[in-house]
Each structure stands twice: as structure tokens, then as C-alpha cells.
Amino acid sequence: MTESAKTTAVLSRTALEESDSFVRLHSGQVFQDNIVPNKGGQQHRNIHIGACVCVEGSVMGSSITIQAAENIIIGDGLPAPGTEIQGSINALSDVDIGCGTWIHGGVLATGDVTISGIKDEKGIPGHVLIEGGVFGRNVTIGDGVVILGPVVASKSLSVGNCVTIRDHVRAPIAKIGDGCLIGGLVCDKSITCGKLLTIASSYIILPKNIEGWGIPHSIRSPYNGCDKCPYEDRLGPDSIIARKLACHLHSHKEFKAGRFTITPGECKKWTYFPLTDKQFHWAIPTGEIVVSLVPSLVTNLSIYTDQASIWERGGE
Amino acid sequence: MMPTCCNVFHVGWICPRCARPMTIKPHSGNDPVPVSKLVPSKIEQSVTVVHGDYVQGSVIKDSVVMGSVGTETKPEGDLDISGKVVPGSNIQDSIVISDSDLDL
Question: Closest to A245 (Cβ–Cβ): which among B9, B12, B19?
Fold first, then answer.
């Protein structure tokens, strides 16, 4: 079958198949509506979204699967973009998101959320971008994923390598990989972090059991070392805060053969959260430890917080 | 693969080397677009009320420019309302309660 015939075959199928228990949106289709319940009971349907589709709305069901992108040729021989969900994903059970997916909204699930890592295969969209937040019971985020909202897990969170989470991360049990950039961290039972991690917030909240922290490497705190960046001429003047957060002089990231390699960059001046210096620790009423380079006992706190918050705002 | 620029992968939403924002290819066109949340669209809302305009109601906007045009200087005390008429209320993000609503 020729390539154009394959395309025709794909496009000629019914875009959406529905039954009382299942919904399937076929690959390469644009569906100009929400995929949501229209009557009682339909909220329990399992939903399968094919590769490289566009849903011009939200998706709601029981288990929701977004298939990983494929090399699909659409009109004029052009490859299809990855899957685009212009609304949110809302599931009463689990959500599984393959690579090559862009969700304009967020992901909300009462079950587990699994987000695939990015892939680098020629002709196949390999990105994963979620513009909203992610909430689930056990949340797993693969390598290189970009999430612009907060990530909250009610049980556990596992974050791969080189993941960007622009907003805060909160989970009782959290495991974060190497070379990530996250907005903030609140964790009250168990924490494990990889190397060359950046947390934009001026504070992190960690479990009360300090001896149980699995943080063998320093975590970069852009406040306050990056305020005095010695490489400012290489990171400015445009969008300097956002560029410093993603700083390639702090860590160098390579993605080859589906694997990330993260190595220290040339900058040795970056500041880190004082994880071992108890004078910078203070406990909140529930016992968790706040670690911050902002002194806890100062009268003019606003001077510090104003300066620190520029990093939390991400440069906008 | 999206978070790649200057031939290398990066975290974040802007390439630290060249400041180019992250872009993505949508279904609605072939050209990559900046991710909307990262490059917010410019909202330019303004109302210009100039000398001689008669506003029949209220003007509540993000920004209101009050300027003066024309060269003729009118004596104080007499306001000529022969200029452009802006009908009705021009309101945003507010509630306007008229006298009748208050039942005075």
C-alpha cells in the first residue's frame, strides 16, 4: 500500500467509536468536541486516545490511555504533529500518557497517573508537555517531561531525569531523578533526590526524620547565589531569570540513545539548600522541616522574600 | 523532541543559551507556536476619553487614558458635550449598581 493510500485509510475510518463501556478515538483524527459523559453511567467508560490525534476539548472517563505518537503522514505528505488535547484529562481511575503528547489543561485522576518519558525517534513526535497541573494517587513522570502546573500525589511520586515542573511538587513519598528543575518541594514521609537538581523556590519542606533524607547531592537554590551570577553576560539580558533557572552552566544535559547523561557545568558558584546546617532549619507545626537560605528569625523578612520570590515567579 | 535548542537538550521553558522560548507544533497549522502559558498574549485594553466626549455611564477598564485633543480652549464652567458619545456603561471586572437597584 502506498503512503497516500495508508493516509486515506486512516482518515476514512470513523473517528470515534463508542459503546457503553469503551470509547476509542482513532489515530490521526481531529475530534471537534469533548469526550465526556452524555448520560449517567458513561463516566465509567474506559477511553483510548489513538496516536497523533487532536481533541478540541476535555476527556473524562474511568481509565484513560493516550497512545504514544507514531509516524503518521497526513495531507501533502506531512507528518502528523503529536497528540494535542486542548482541554483536560479527568479520570475516575488511572491515566496513562504516552510520548508525543501536549495537554493544554491538566491531568486529574483518582487512580494512578503514568506519564511516559520523551523519545527521540526520527519522524515521531517525542515530547510530553502538560500545561496544567497533575494530580493522582501514585504519579510517575518519565524523563524529559515538561509540566507547567503543580504536581501533587496523594501517595507517591516518581520523577525521572531532566524533568521540568514549573510549579510546586507535593507528595508524602517522593523520588526525584537527576538534572531536574522543579518549582518547589513539599514532602512529609520519604524523599530521595538525584544529582544536579534545581528547586526554584526559596524553601523546601522535608520529612521530620532528617536522618532518613535520601539526598546525597546538593540541591541548587537559585536564591541567592544566582543573584550574583558571575556569568550574567552569557545568560542575559533577555529572560534572564528563566535562563538562570535552566542554567546550562550549572549542569550539562545530553540525550542520546534514549538515555540522559547529566554532568556538572562550568559554574562552581551556585548556592545550595543548607540541608546539613541546622541553623537554617525550622519546623512547621506538623513537624516537617523547612530548609531555606532565608533566615527564619529576621524582622525585615519582606526584604528577603521579595528577592527570593523572583525565582518562584520564573522570570515573568 | 521539544525541549531541544542550540542542538542540545535543556530543562525549563526557555533555552538558557539563546533565550528562545519553547515551541510546539499544533494541529491547527504547520508552524510551531510558543507554548501559550509561557508567552502570554498581550492584552491591550484601553479607552480614550478626550475633551468633549460625553460618557453616558461609567468607564471602568484596565486602563483609561484621559487626554485632550483639539486646539480650541473653552472657557471654564461651560462644558460643550458635542463630541463623540460613548453609549452605555463600559465596564470590566466590576459590578455597577444603579440608583434604581438600590431602591432609594
Answer: B12
| Interface contact A232, partner B, CB < 8 A | no
Q: Which chain A residue lies closest to B35 (C-alpha atoms)? A: A131
pLDDT tens per residue, range A31-77: 999 999 999 999 999 999 999 999 999 999 999 999 999 998 877 77
For residue A105, which residues of chain B lie inside 8 Å, CB to CB?
Answer: none
CB pair distance less than 8 Å for A164 and B2: no
A282-293 pLDDT tens trace: 999 999 999 999
What ipTM did this prediction achieve? 0.87
A35: DSSP letter: B
Total CB pairs under 8 A between chain A and B? 100
Residues 6+ apart with CB under 8 A from A316: A242, B40
Say if residues A271 and A226 touch (Cβ distance below 8 Å): yes
pLDDT tens-digit map of B33-68: 887 666 544 444 556 666 666 666 655 555 555 555
What string of DSSP letters covers A73-124?
A: EEGGGEEPP-EEESS-EEESS-EEE-SSEEESS-EEESS-EEEPPP--BTTB
Q: Look up the pTM and report it.
A: 0.81
